[in-house]
Amino acid sequence: MLEFLDLRERGERLEATRLEIDPTVADTVTGILQRVFVEGDEVLIELALRFDGADLGEILVTDEEFAAAERDTPPELRQALDELIERLRHLASRQVPAEWWEERDGVRYGEIVRPLESVGCYVPGGRAVYPSSVCMTVVPAVVAGVGEVVLCTPPQSDGTIPAPVLYAAERAGATYVAKTGGAQAVGAMAYGTESVPRVDRIVGPGNAYVTEAKRQVAGFVGIDGLAGPSELAIVAGDDVDAHMAALDLIAQAEHDPEARTFFVTTSADLIERVGAALEAALKKAGRRDIVDAALRYTRAVVVRDLDQAADVVNDLAAEHLQILLPEPGVFLAKVRNAGAIFLGRWTAVPFGDYGVASNHVLPTAGTARFSSGLRAADYVTVTSVVEMDGEAASRFAPGTCLIARAEGLVGHAKAMDARANDHRDGTPV
Q1: For domain 228-372, which CATH number applies: 3.60.15.10, 3.40.109.10, 3.40.50.1980, 3.40.30.10?
Q2: What's the confidence (pLDDT) of residue 425?
Q3: Helix (H) / strand (E) containing 113
Q4: Helices (H), 145-241
Q5: Any catalytic annotation for residue 320?
Q6: Which of 1, 84, 215, 224 gets the most CB atoms within 10 Å of its CB?
Q7: Number of H helices and number of E strands within the chain?
């Protein structure tokens, strides 16, 4: 059941998964984006009919539809979503950078923090309904103080958005919800249409077409990153509960038929036990077509010791890292690269998927080496501010002008010299 990889006597290193875009996908996306830029809403309506089977009247969700969604969402689910939103608000409130100021040697300087004017949140549809992704993308934006939050998600065939998604959008604080998905939704948020406002940054995961569209508009607008298949690395000790570990593997496999999981341990015997437990647990698993497909990518990795396990984890730079060791904090000190980390037997990764102290929009495809999960700080800009007095200009000019002239930037030097001279002898700048 589990593909076995023994690294105990081998010097090779595992490589992180890499995001690869099919050239035909790139070409298709380019054409869609060009059409959205020129034709606007007309393309969104046309492609909703072609790809979603939905004959749209209005692209934006109406107040009546929001009200119906609240009625149609079961009370218990409404409460659970409200609690998720509150957890995320608390988490996001800790993530907004603070403005600061300092004065030294006649220079007053600091950084001011300003929320973005508008952001676009993409929430996928298709295989499942994702009100949690609504909360993960919208709540940090609202907490950061973003003025306008646009949410795009594919419509169902009857032209509606699932009730829990709309309930979550309204409660989280989305300004608009647009019934559009795929590359065309990214184009609408990047360029603006008659119905969908243009935004400054686009966040949220999607399929290959959404990911490629984000790649193509990056620079015109900001993006959070390019999402590949979901990933999980588990580091487990010999005493781990094999049944629990099997359930963790199945939970990860449910995400996506392309999901990747690496089960890393020093115990070959544990792999056998977990493999047997996995076969038993699969008999009661749901979404078997997706789970079975994803399990083809699961690798059981045997290492010499926990230092080698840390090397494996850091090389993989996985979206999720689960540490099932007696002293997870000791291993945590060895970890450099991971999107989100879950410590100990009680901390199942799905808790993070539903907002227990983590956002689930996380770096994939090895990008945790240089990027972080979605957070409120992603919805603001931080700008340096500098104010000098005449004494400071006179003090700094000799050194700064020397560097400027060494770089051939005489105009830079003259601009600084003029301030210094004016301070010393009153010569007009």
Answers
A1: 3.40.50.1980
A2: 79
A3: strand 107-115
A4: 163-172, 182-191, 208-217
A5: yes
A6: 224
A7: 16, 14
Which residue out of 170, 255, 319, 360 is catalytically annotated? 319
Biggest distance spanned by C-alpha atoms of the chain: 88
Distance in angstroms (rounded) separating the CA atoms of residues 233 and 178: 35
Q: Are 143 and 131 in contact (CB under 8 A)?
A: no
Do 23-224 and 228-372 fold alike per CATH? yes
Rounded average pLDDT per 10-residue block, the chain, 429 residues: 83 81 94 98 97 94 98 98 98 98 96 98 86 98 98 96 98 98 98 98 96 97 94 96 97 92 96 96 94 94 96 97 97 98 97 97 96 98 97 96 98 96 73
Indicate left, alpha or beta for 88 from its phi (over 0: left) and psi (-120 to 50: alpha).
Answer: alpha
One-letter amino acid for residue 1 of the chain: M
Instruction: In whole angstroms, give the CA distance from residue 348 to residue 343.
Output: 8
| Dist CA 212 CA 227 (whole Å) | 9
- Residue ranges per structural domain of the chain: 23-224, 228-372, 389-425
CATH number assigned to the domain with residue range 23-224, chosen from the 4 options 3.40.50.720, 3.30.200.20, 3.40.50.2300, 3.40.50.1980: 3.40.50.1980
DSSP string across 334-360? T----SEEEESTT--HHHHHTTSSS-S
Q: Which helix (H) or strand (E) holds 69?
A: helix 63-72
Catalytic residue among 255, 320, 360, 423: 320
In what order do the strands lie in the sheet containing 380-388?
Answer: 100-104, 107-115, 380-388
Amino acid letter, residue 353: D
Nearest to 205 by CA among 278, 153, 279: 153
The residue written with tokens 């799905």 in the block is 350
Tokens of 428: 């007009």
What radius of gyration do the chain's Cα atoms show?
26
